Amino acid sequence: MEWETVIGLEIHAQLATKSKIFSGAATTYGAEPNTQACAVDLGLPGVLPVINKEVVAKAVKFGLAIEAEIPPKSVFARKNYFYPDLPKGYQISQFELPIVSTGHIDIQLEDGTTKRIGVTRAHLEEDAGKSMHEGFGDYTGIDLNRAGTPLLEIVSEPDMRNAKEAVAYMKKIHSIVRYLEICDGNMQEGSFRCDANVSVRPKGQEEFGTRAELKNINSFRFVEQAINIEVERQIDILEDGGEVIQETRLYDPNKNETRSMRSKEEANDYRYFPDPDLLPVEIENSFIEQIRGQLPELPDAKKQRFIDEFKLSEYDSGVLTAQKEMSDYFETCVKAADGEAKLSSNWITGELAASLNKENKDITESPVSAEMLGGMVKRIKDDTISGKIAKQVFEAMWNGEGNADSIIESKGLKQVTDTGAIEKLVDDVISNSPDQVAQYQAAPDDKKGKLIGYFVGQIMKQSQGKANPKQVNELLRKKLKI
Amino acid sequence: MHQSTLAQLSAALESKEISSEELTRLYLERCKKFNDSLNCFITINEDEAIKKAKLADQQRAENKHTALTGIPVAQKDIFCTNGIKTSCGSKMLDNFIAPYDATVVEKMNAAGFIMLGKTNMDEFAMGSSNETSFYGPVKNPWNTDYVPGGSSGGSASAVAARLTPIATGTDTGGSIRQPASLCGITGLKPTYGRVSRYGMIAFASSLDQGGPMALTAEDAALMMNVIAGFDERDSTSAEQQVDDYTKNLNNSIEGLKIGLPKEYFGEGLDSNIAKIVEDGIKELEKLGATCKEIELPNTELSIPAYYVVAPAECSSNLSRFDGVRFGYRCDDPKDLSDLYTRSRGEGFGKEVKRRIMIGAYVLSAGYYDAYYLKAQQIRHLIRDDFQNAFKDVDVIAGPTATGTAFKLNEMIDDPVSMYLSDLYTVSVNLAGLPAISVPAGFDNNLPVGLQLIGNYFEESRLLNIAHQFQQATDHHKAIPEGFE
Q: What are the phi and psi torsion angles at A76 (to 5°)?
């Protein structure tokens, strides 16, 4: 039987605010345990939550970016359950009336087509603390620094049909929250993580299969692996005549398997009800318009602009705009390269990306700044150096030896364009290689192109790569015909 | 001196007739002397109080004082006090010392009040008799075989016995007004949101409101001037301008229109109480008020609605008492579930557990709509009833409680009867209105309160009427025998 996979994602994006969602405590990551937890975060008796207005503004910004409806009123609700790192015995979240209503985003599929994925809702909630099971003997340590950190939970429609689509969706949301500067997107620190609802059904069947919820996946790679392995597991069960049970599962990247955490029967009854300590959040149109005015150019719009303005391919434009910092880098580089977009794009997506990748660095950590790279591209464009020499220049820049011009100068890498000097090199090589000349001249026309490479190579070697290859080629062809 | 009102004490301090230290020592001596029999204090804060009183005297000497600097007060043990135990009447918090002051406490400290101690109360403010306290029942100074009412029973008893000139209380379903009625003092429950709830341990967040428990309406007004107002730490506090509550006290009540809800004078009200309340209303008529009968048709729904909403909120509010971070923790928990179950099972008393169970039930999947949502709808009906009534009348008058104080242990095993005794008070909380209870007379030597209910933020008007009533009557001046 042919199976179809159905996937919906719940993404938790930590909103980048200085203070917590309901208290004035700082949200900085990595502080000593419990140094960033005030009385409100500790859930001490008598304390009360007060909404951080910045959190509301950031959520609304996200809603506008996905063309969602922003309801005039949203309500905080209590989700009641006991857990040691949940200080109040309930999490303040949103239930019936979320801050962001239905919206959508477009993802690019591998075949180049675009698919629209629905976003059911996005709601605000506070994060819990952390239980630490190591280093405390028979006890469990509780760190409440994270408790009360603002989260935006973005819930998709079950619109994705394979793991790659899920990854594309997650990457797109990641890109949007980074563009909006509402979330730092740091997946290692847990600032951006997701739960995946996965089910399979016989192809053609309308009704959804029973789903499993894969919890807390914090990398794009793991999302893909977790979904694929889970789909395999479910299909195996169904093909063996079994039934998938509704449950929460945990993905173990080390063993590449999913494990059951709790079944539906063990699930909590969260006893949601509106939090009486907080008033409903009322959002006026003027506020929405004010936020709309602050929206930056978003990835889709920027991608189209790059195609139109810089004549880039759809693919290159997509790569360059996926990350805001990358697109900023590109634009700065082009400017420094006197508008040379194609070469800039090639260098960024080629040499630079490879070097960053090799050293596991983000574009923001690149030792070669956009201005430096642009300065080098400019020198390729004006024939000061060849593309081949540029690789040496790039490497030197990467190693901190200065900018392109100073490296070209100090290493004497300037391309030789003096016709007289090149002519001398050509003449020398021709006179020193009578056999090759004879071979060349005897060869049929369609083989000549290949044979000329020998002479070019010799000349470039003699010139230490500095001879202008175009001139060398032209001169050789002229002289060898004689 | 201990029979004085706040205004009198303020004058005595101002004229140097007495120092704050002397005054504070005088009240502390009374507290220590009578606490054995009344049990109205959980904590007496002797050393700290004397230290603060000396400081108050210094401030007065340096002319850096307010009118209230150096006057003693008692705080209900539901208000967090920095560095001093805040138990909320529960074993659960017997070891709890808050690292902060409640806003109410902070404001009173800033005004110069000297805190004598923390008063006894029903556990987590759940009770109408002050018998659910982990620290034992409080006695009514009018007859120590009787309860003082609850949950602010310790404050009511302490003020009535003149162990403190004034005290704070909190009112979720009548917890200021009912004990005020049963102990013969004046108690004001302000409009919901008028007084900050920050640092006041939550019972039912949408109903809780702190307020003064005093000898007179004037004293209550003086305290309101200190504690009322918006607090940015409490999102539900009102950003509405605060009145000078003493300003209108002496206004005439000529032409005041009083509504008498027929539902408050029907079945269930003791006939002697009815007579005393009616006499009190006649006094108001003599002062120029006119009365008319009104209807609050959904009154009978208020008890069931209240006993859904309040437990629902409390079941969630009390979840933080789990033995993990503070408060009571059971010995040798064998695992997490055992830690939770035994810490909560051993730390909470019977009434608290009963309400948590009710609350968890009415919020649970499949029952939410039938109970919690329905109760919220009833709240709207009750609010509308009052708003309709206030189209025709300025205030509403009636009894505060269905009877006088009852005997200790008389009702403790009959929670439903106890719940039903809140009939005249809970609808005010459900609607969020202000209401005051003033002493109106005695039945069998036990005090009876007259309740006045006002429209939103009309505390000033209620205090004015109560003050005029007290200018014309002496019920509030009566002192229980043995406490003169």
A: -85, 140
